[in-house]
Write a structure and sequence with these properties.
Bound molecules: (2S,3S)-3-hydroxy-2-methylbutanoyl-COA
Organism: Rhodococcus koreensis
CATH class of the largest domain: Alpha Beta
Structural class: alpha/beta
Keywords: Fatty acid metabolism, Isomerase, Lipid degradation, Lipid metabolism, Lyase, Multifunctional enzyme, NAD, Oxidoreductase, Peroxisome
CATH superfamily of the largest domain: 2-enoyl-CoA Hydratase, Chain A, domain 1
Distance between the termini: 59 Å
GO molecular function: (3S)-3-hydroxyacyl-CoA dehydrogenase (NAD+) activity; enoyl-CoA hydratase activity; isomerase activity; NAD+ binding
CATH topology of the largest domain: 2-enoyl-CoA Hydratase, Chain A, domain 1
Radius of gyration: 28 Å
Strand content: 5-15%
Number of helices: 28
Number of domains: 3
Low-confidence stretches: none
Helix content: 40-55%
Family: Belongs to the 3-hydroxyacyl-CoA dehydrogenase family.
Shape: globular
Protein name: 3-hydroxyacyl-CoA dehydrogenase
Mean pLDDT: 95
CATH architecture of the largest domain: Alpha-Beta Complex
Strand order of the largest sheet: 13-12-11-14-15-16-17-18
Length: 703
């Protein structure tokens, strides 16, 4: 008969009970059992209570979704972060217990959560749990022993790969690697209790990782690993620190290695990069919350999707759903286009398999989820339809009219438009409440960002459904209301305007691109235009030409290049020239001549332009437009705008996004610089009212 004591609360977030002489310490700190102050005090109390001779072993288990998601990032920089005992002090108490301690893992054991499991003697994980040390993703390195203990447990090479990439593995892979001792399908707590009662002989010396000597280098070339870290990567500093720390595990006794790791962690934790990356982490989590929709709103079930159009976007979108395990019909009434789309899908998946990102089985699984169809009637079985046809309102309205007639009631009708008026599209059919914009970014099967464009009459549950399905297919959704260009592309307009103006004032495409890539942009505006195609912007400018204010300065450079058939990489010439088969941008004197001629005809003086002005003119143009978007209620939060630019436009995550960057400069300073540009360049630079108000109110942030 099992003897179980009452469950007692050792702290607000840690419970304790004894079952047949085994102490069960339960972490209960929603949402992810982060190693906050009350977890640490509770764990410490639980270990102290387990020193009692009546206790023969300990199991640590997590309540809720998982074992432990690591340090409580919300407490960083707050008084709670320094409440004793520290994480390493609690870990030392666990190791000093000298009784078998088992980590019973379900859901996830990440960061400090895995580090907690590594100071236990045994680790038992439930199938499906995610396990890893993802600290570099938030600009840190494992700071509670992970860089010293994981290499000692699984070898230097495997440990370095996991730590440097911030990757996670499944419980079964973790068992193969030796991170966990057993992977079980049942309740890991039951498995741990059984293990302790059956498999751990009384008094046996339970394995302690710290007792192991420094590990071999495993053939790892640490200098090469350091050189391979791209200068532009968002978490470069953290990756380099992680490589150094893992190297220390091969050269130093563990005490010294832990001290080196700790020192590196302290250096990183308050660094601007780590703070910016933590901002992005939380901003992505916040973006899915909709302030004015009841959180109890139930999403519509999405079991099958139909994608209309098998061009670049359509095939990418179909792959995005297949990647998330959602069956998708890929519909195109042109047989050649459909064949090309199907071939593109197979080619893309096979390329991923060739790079080791997918197994051939996964490739076939995903391809099997995508059903090509020539028959538009196929949409009748879809719960969500995404049209990705030609970016023209008339064409889209024709498609929506057919969907209105063919789709079952309650089907979510989405347009992948990148800037057209979703409200106008909604008004053209009988069920406008079911219409929403799902603006995927190319390549849609890769890019994380998904702008969810909420129309005036879009039903709340359609919004909630769209956000939920976005998360299911591993996208980062950001809600936008309807305006020309929504959030991202609307901000791109002034950014490109300033870049174009800088050309006429004396900068070159390669200079502007270089300066902005140095700032951290994944790609400069002109190389980006050549990649995306100058003809797309040209079509938009022609559409908007009738409404363009004639009294405002306008750069004709892009139009002249397009009139000359220079559409970018697709025509081997745009702002740059491209040798046959190459995507390498080569500066082209022809473009220089076009720029000079346009500037001369428009009476624009050439001058020396400092790098700082190039950055300010382009980046503060983004910020000012972002503040206008926020002020108009198009975006819910400044941090949403940051997510759009970091996850959709290559803005450097280690700078937090355009709005976070502006806040780090200081809003007063930002307004001062914008007013300077307004004095020189006129109303294009009229400060956003929300920015002026924030400065008047002495605020340090846009919210
Ligand atoms: N700290 C604080 N809050 C966290 C958190 C964390 N580590 N992880 C998640 N949250 C919040 C998140 O903001 C959201 O809040 C809610 O939990 C649900 O998150 C010492 C120093 C664990 C796999 O990097 O990967 O340990 O919006 O929607 O899909 O060396 O969250 O609901 O208010 O993602 O079930 C290292 C990051 C930290 C793990 C759960 N750990 N988190 O996924 O839920 S540094 C990580 C995740 C560290 C040590 C170092 C995922 C998850 P809200 P969610 P989920």
């Amino acid at each position: 008969m099992s003897e179980t004591t009452q469950i007692v609360d050792l702290s607000p977030t840690v419970q304790y009970e004894v079952r047949d002489g085994v102490a069960v310490i339960r972490l209960a700190n929603p949402p992810v059992n982060g190693l906050g102050d009350t977890i640490r005090t509770g764990l410490s109390a639980g270990i102290a209570a387990s020193r009692d001779d009546a206790i023969c072993g300990v199991v640590i288990v997590g309540d809720g979704k998982g074992f432990c998601g690591g340090a409580d990032l919300r407490q960083f920089g707050t008084p709670a972060a320094v409440v004793k005992p520290s994480v390493s002090e609690v870990f030392a108490q666990i190791q000093a217990l000298r009784k078998p301690v088992v980590a019973a893992i379900h859901g996830f054991a990440l960061g400090g959560g895995l580090e907690l499991a590594l100071v236990c003697n045994y680790r038992i994980a439930q199938t499906g749990a995610r396990i890893g040390l993802p600290e570099v993703n938030v600009g840190l390195l494992p700071g509670a022993g992970g860089t010293q203990r994981l290499p000692r447990l699984i070898g230097t090479a495997e440990a370095l790969t996991l730590i440097q990439n911030g990757a996670t593995v499944t419980a079964s892979r973790a068992a193969e690697l030796g991170i966990v001792d057993y992977c079980v399908t049942g309740d890991p707590l039951d498995a741990a209790l059984t293990f302790l009662s059956n498999s751990v002989p009384e008094g046996s010396a339970a394995p302690v990782i710290d007792d192991r000597p420094p590990v071999s280098r495993d053939g790892v070339d640490f200098d090469a690993a350091r050189k391979a870290v791209r200068p532009s990567t968002r978490n470069r500093v953290a990756q380099l620190a992680a490589i150094d720390a893992v190297e220390a595990a091969t050269t130093h006794p563990i005490e010294d290695g832990l001290a080196l790791e700790r020192a590196a962690f302290v250096r990183l934790v308050d660094s601007p990069e780590a703070q910016a990356l933590r901002h992005v982490f939380f901003a992505e989590k916040e973006a899915v919350k909709v302030a004015d929709i009841d959180r109890a709103t139930v999403p519509r079930p999405i079991n099958r999707v139909a994608v209309i159009g098998s061009g670049t976007m359509g095939t990418g979108i179909a792959m995005a759903f297949a990647n998330g395990g959602v069956p998708a019909d890929l519909i195109d009434q042109n047989v050649d286009a459909l064949d090309r789309g199907v071939a593109t899908i197979r080619r893309n998946y096979e390329a991923s398999a060739a790079k080791g990102r997918l197994t051939t089985h996964q490739v076939e699984q995903r391809i099997a989820l995508i059903e090509p169809s020539l028959d538009l009637d196929t949409v009748s079985s879809a719960d969500l339809v995404v049209e990705a046809v030609f970016e023209d309102m008339t064409v889209k309205k024709e498609v929506f009219a057919k969907l209105d007639a063919l789709c079952k009631p309650g089907t979510v009708l989405a347009s992948n438009t990148s800037r057209l008026d979703v409200d106008e599209l909604a008004r053209s059919i009988s069920r406008p409440q079911d219409v929403i914009g799902l603006h995927f970014f190319s390549p849609a099967n890769v890019m994380k960002l998904l702008e969810v464009v909420r129309g005036e009459v879009t039903a709340d549950d359609v919004v909630v459904t769209s956000l939920a399905v976005a998360q299911k297919i591993d996208k980062v959704p950001v809600l936008s209301k309807v305006c020309e260009g929504f959030i991202g592309n609307r901000m791109l307009s002034p950014y490109r305007r300033e870049a174009d103006f800088l050309l006429e004032e004396g900068a070159t495409p390669e200079r502007v691109d270089h300066v902005l890539q140095d700032f951290g942009l994944a790609m400069g505006p002109f190389a980006m235009s050549d990649l995306a195609g100058l003809d797309i912007g040209w079509a938009a400018r022609k559409r908007l030409a009738p409404s363009r204010p004639q009294h405002l300065r306008y750069s004709r450079v892009a139009d002249v290049l397009c009139e000359g058939g220079r559409f970018g990489q697709k025509t081997a010439a745009g702002y740059y020239r491209y040798e046959a088969g190459s995507r390498l941008p080569v500066p082209d004197p022809v473009v220089e001549q076009v720029i000079r001629r346009c500037a001369q005809e428009d009476g624009i003086e050439q001058r020396e332009i400092a790098d700082a002005e190039i950055v300010d003119r382009c980046i503060l143009a983004l910020v000012n437009e972002g503040a206008k978007i926020l002020g108009e209620g198009i975006a819910q939060r400044a941090s949403d705008i940051d997510v759009v630019y970091v996850d959709g436009y290559g803005f450097p995550a280690h700078r937090g996004g355009p709005m976070y960057y502006a806040q780090s400069l200081g809003l007063q300073e930002v307004l001062r610089r914008i007013r300077q540009f307004e004095a020189v360049h006129g109303e294009y630079w009229s400060p956003a009212p929300l920015l002026e108000q924030a400065v008047r109110d002495g605020k340090t942030s846009f919210q």
